[in-house]
Amino acid sequence: MSCDGVSGGALKEELNEQQVKELLSEVRHQTSLHWNFRRLKSLPRELLEECSHIEQMYLKCNLLMNLPNNLGCLSHLTYCHLNGNNLQCLPDSIGEMVSLQVLDVGNNKLKALPLTLSKLPSLRSLVAVYNQITCFPAELCCLQSLSLLMLSGNSLLHLPEAISGLTGLQGLYIDHNLLRELPRSLAALPILTRISCCCNHLTHLPAVAFISRPKFFFDNNSGINYLPFSLVRQLRSGETWNPVVMQTSGCFQDSAVVNNTVYISLSRPVKSGNSHWLVLPPQINTVTTSLSGSAKLPPLKEICLRSIWSGKQRSRNGTWHITNGINVGLLPSSLCVILEIGPVAYCETPGCEMPIFTHTSIIVVTISLSAKLYMEGSLVPTVMYFCCDSCAKQYTQSIQKMVDEFSLWLRGRLECACSIELV
Ligand SMILES: [Zn+2]
Fold first, then answer.
1. Is the pTM above the cut of 0.85?
2. Contact partners, residue 77, CB within 8 Å, separation at least 6
3. Ligand 1 centroid to 59 CA: how many Å?
4. For the chain, what is the domain count?
5. Domain limits for position 107
């Protein structure tokens, strides 16, 4: 997004020549610029002309509404702090600051992030909290040095699955947005240690195991009324829950279990008036349960997707190709879209681990979370995904035989499995 910046000349209406001189004299022989709390409405043109040696720029809590279009000529800048101004956009030339490591543009009025940020190979911290940003562009998901991404307090409706390209990400802060679901590809980030997504509109969490087992904070998403079992497995350590790993205050307010029955709605969108429904990821089209009668086979489309996925390999450049003899060009685009996003979950039966795309067989068990999770005595529904009814049956039978600690813990709970009704 381009930005109509201003020339530095505007400052002369605000500051006289002497004041500009004094400002510049502070930094002419320094590598750090400290102009916080100066009530500056714009930057002097002379700053860009004479002070391109600056490495750190602190301009917090001024009155800046625009930045010069040629801001990028500060090519030595490593730290850029613009928190607490009135910025409505950032100049595209910011992509020319190739040394930039830390960019803090929090508490402004930004509606978008410039795509040119993707050209900053050293950027490791991007703070854009409390703006009016509606979209985190997929184009920025190539920033492999980025370890901290703070986007809380914006109007984000979704995050791109391409976020898995941020392979250096350690902390993701997306509290106070409008997110309805999280990208499943977050689970693939190798060194992610913390996700904070409190106060959004989430109705479910990714049902795939997170490689890096991050700490997960999702308080005050009142639409969440169950946990995927893959997450439950990660949150337990031994016989106890690890309270540090997850915070859930404000969730599970309306249990999906009513009279020992779980109601699952596959119609979209889910009516907000009935929060007793358990909301599966929207990619799931059909659900069966081995508890409800005779075993059913997955639909042909689902079997196709699983077969193709088994031959799928991702290239170094992020695109994927199929190695089991199927011509990708002949696939309908509807299948390609599903394959591009990847499985919703993997079959829980040990040794199967079949990817699940649009069809699943599920078992719902209720678990008791400990008081340390603010949930004393509360039963939380947990969904176990299976590739087919026979895998689900096999799992419930095998759990009786398995002797490891986890299955011992689970054994008692499987008996309180609920009946399931689709609505
Ligand atoms: Zn299976």
1. yes
2. 54, 55, 56, 57, 97, 99, 100
3. 56
4. 1
5. 8-256
